[in-house]
Design goal:
The protein is 70% helix and 4% strand. By secondary structure, it is mostly helical.
């Protein structure tokens, strides 16, 4: 291996180490310090029949394979476009360099749409399987319309990201990772704040929970937990799925608790109260802010790794020299041709590949914190409602409604699980009941 390749590999290895260390430190500092329950060991056969377990495994096993295949297809497509683009793509990328910022928007949006298209067959198979098992209520046309809406929104967002990326590389050719990290954080804050009022209504109808017994109980739970709940919304999830769920979202004036209509109509009031109590924990402990703080710590190192990988992918074409590119002004036309090329939309496929790889690793790391936060929310719900039977019944009901595997394979859970598995969550309820002597 040449000295230059050795140095490049060393820079990448150092960036990987810094990113891993940052994720570990962030998770350690932001983890829940208390309020957790050690789960009891439970036998799934005591809560699910053999037929129910088999049905979940038969559905979720292939769905996991489809999801993993989609990840591989996306990564392979980005690698092809970054490292060995077809002639027509290469010509289009070269043409985009004539107007770098406009080209950045076009290439960014194009990459997003290409990834949607290459994954469409797998997504269609996954949707059809959901229909067959009774989880999805959408026909193919309605599903395809939602895919189109999501693709359009994704194209707009990645088009804007393409403009921002090209502008940053042109302005900060050797250190664009630093403003890039600030940009990632800013985008996260904006999407979290405006998503509930701008993006979510594109797909569903949200209506404030009307006055009545349930709203009174929600406000009572909020008062007992010391939470200013904001607004509580009912969402028409049944137009898309028979599954049930709830979530908390938004920042400041857009903060809200959202309950699926399937949850409100298909579960007993005591179990709905347990869901609400769980979501109130996220408000009480400012878990959305905790996620943003995690990003503050991890984003700089992660973006440094993204820059190093992007340079490595582009380096095979001679676009980057010496670990970076020659310094450019924001829109300099007098810079050397090679430097201008390195800071044009031609770098976006390589950047997309680097972002995908780093996001995969960072996402798996963030899930460690997410599982701990969700475990605390479960414990908070049990303490607030003092109803472990309703909690256990809720976890069983959600697993059945969502055709979830109550005990998924541990490698998949470690990489992709944002919540503890159902078997563990039932264990929380059993342990709480035993501890409280109920």
């Amino acid at each position: 291996m040449s000295r230059r390749l050795t140095a490049k590999a060393g820079r990448i290895a150092a960036a990987v180490a810094i990113t891993a260390l940052g994720a570990a430190v962030a998770t350690f500092l932001l983890r829940p310090r208390g309020g957790l329950i050690e789960p009891a060991s439970v036998d799934l056969a005591g809560y699910f029949s053999a037929a129910e377990i088999q049905r979940a495994e038969a559905f979720r096993g292939p769905q996991r394979v489809i999801a993993l295949a989609g990840t591989v297809v996306s990564a392979t497509t980005l690698a092809l476009l970054a490292l060995r683009p077809p002639r027509t793509v290469r010509r289009a990328l070269e043409a985009s360099a004539r107007r770098p910022l406009v080209g950045g928007a076009a290439v960014g949006a194009g990459l997003s749409l290409v990834l949607v298209l290459v994954n469409l067959p797998l997504d269609a198979i996954g949707h059809q399987r959901s229909v067959e098992v009774g989880l999805s209520t959408q026909g193919f046309g309605a599903w395809l319309l939602d895919v189109g809406k999501a693709a359009g929104i994704g194209a707009v967002l990645t088009g804007g990201g393409g403009v921002l990326a090209v502008a940053l590389v042109r302005r900060f050719p050797r250190s664009w990772w630093a403003p890039g990290a600030a940009g990632v954080l800013a985008i996260g804050v904006v999407l979290l704040g405006v998503g509930p009022v701008v993006l979510d209504p594109v797909f569903n109808r949200f209506t404030p929970l009307p006055p009545g017994e349930l709203r009174t109980e929600v406000l009572d739970l909020a008062g007992r937990s010391g939470v200013r709940v904001g607004e509580v919304y009912r969402v028409d999830a049944s137009r898309r799925t028979t599954g049930a769920n709830a979530y908390v979202g938004g920042l400041g004036p857009t903060k809200r608790v959202v309950l699926y209509d399937n949850l409100l109509e298909g579960f007993p009031p005591a179990q709905v109260r347990s869901v609400v109590a769980h979501e109130l924990s996220h408000q009480r402990h400012r878990d959305l802010g905790r996620g943003l703080l995690w990003l503050v710590v991890v984003a700089p190192a992660a973006m440094l790794l993204v820059q190093r990988l992007t340079e490595a992918f582009r380096g095979s074409g001679g676009a980057f020299r010496g670990g970076g590119v020659e310094r450019l002004g924001p829109l300099s036309r007098s810079a050397p041709r090679r430097s201008r090329r390195a800071a044009t939309p031609e770098l976006l496929p390589a950047l997309g590949l680097a972002l995908a790889l780093v996001s995969f690793g960072v996402g798996a790391a963030s899930n460690v914190l997410s599982r701990q936060v969700e475990a605390r929310a479960d414990a908070f719900a049990l303490e607030l409602t003092r109803d472990p039977a309703a909690f256990v019944g809720l976890e069983r009901g959600l697993a059945l409604r969502n055709v979830s595997d109550p005990d998924p394979p541990w490698p998949y859970q470690m990489l992709f699980g944002t919540h503890p598995p159902t078997v563990v969550r039932i264990g929380y309820g059993v342990a709480f009941e035993a501890r409280a002597g109920m």
